[in-house]
Amino acid sequence: MEGSIPIDIRKVAVIGCGFVGSATAFALMQSRLFSEMVLLDANRAKAEGEAMDIAHGIPFAGQMKIYAGDYDDICDAGIIVITAGANQKPDETRLDLVHKNVEIFKSIIPEIAKRDYKGILLIVSNPVDILTYAAVKLSGLPENRVIGSGTVLDTARLKYLLGEHLSVDSRSVHAFIIGEHGDSEIAVWSSANVSGIPIDDFCEMRGHYDHVQAMRQIAENVKNSAYEIIARKQATYYGIAMSVKRICEVIVRDEKSILPISTMIHDEYGIDDIALSMPAIVGGEGVETHVPISLNKQETESLIDSAETLKKVAKELEL
To answer: What pLDDT, on the 0 to 100 scale, is given for residue 212?
Structure first.
């Protein structure tokens, strides 16, 4: 990656040291992907405390430099992970957070952009699709280098629940949640399979025959799982931290893996100029290309509805 300040792909920055940011930093420290990590928070002492606490685990994980810093310290980071923002409260949807968190982004993203940043922005704050869209508009960075964590976690939840339902390793389950990371998300059942076996056939092989009811229940459980966790412990952070670690792994290793991340969509499935989650090939330069997943008529209509929901919100922001 060329530019005035060379990018160090072994350096990562995390902006926001709340539940999600600190859990993410902890997961990234254990991953051994990076040799340097900078933590930023509006409360500098919080960032310093998290850096100190996580650094004390380095003797168990491998050498790494971890410290609290500011924007000048992160302009050469290969990946900047943004988790800053207000938390989702019980009974609050992700979209309810939008105005609070867009205002926060208006103070963060320009600071990164004015330093001619050449790395990859990974947006994790909610509502992630709208904030990915906001980050693209506010930063002026090429769209392939602005990625939202999207439905990577929702898809993991789907695979986990299907694995439990079918008593099979969740890594053998191939299925996606697409669209909004939120209430209008879509479980793509039409192309779901277990090691190439269509999901309905595999269900019957395992003694499950009421497909429609089971699919509806599992999709609902995936959609509501964040609400269920928030109601019990006020926040979700371990699952998303592992999702961020996986996305960073794919970028640092240039794996060209297919992940349902949130990126800008242009003229696909009748959708244009909004960020939402679709499977894409991700590598060292960010998003390489979207993967044309096959959807049935109902799934396509639901995806367009999901995009419209997000576009209405995006229009109000005047970015």
So the answer is: 85
Residue 262 backbone dihedrals phi, psi, to 5 degrees:
-90, 120
Q: What is the pLDDT of residues 88-126, one digit of tens each?
A: 777 777 677 898 899 999 999 999 999 999 999 999 999
Q: How far apart are CA 212 and CA 200, in angstroms?
A: 10
The single residue listed with the structure tokens 């790395």 is 119
Task: Note the pLDDT of residue 182.
Answer: 87
> Based on the domain organization, do 176 and 214 belong to the same domain?
yes
| Domain carrying residue 21 | 8-148
pTM (2 decimals)?
A: 0.94
Q: Identify whether residues 89 and 232 lie together within a single domain.
A: no
Domain CATH code at residue 44: 3.40.50.720
**Would you list the DSSP string of 143-192?**
GGGEEE-TTHHHHHHHHHHHHHHHTS-GGGEE--EEB-SSTT-EE--TT-
> Active-site residue numbers?
181
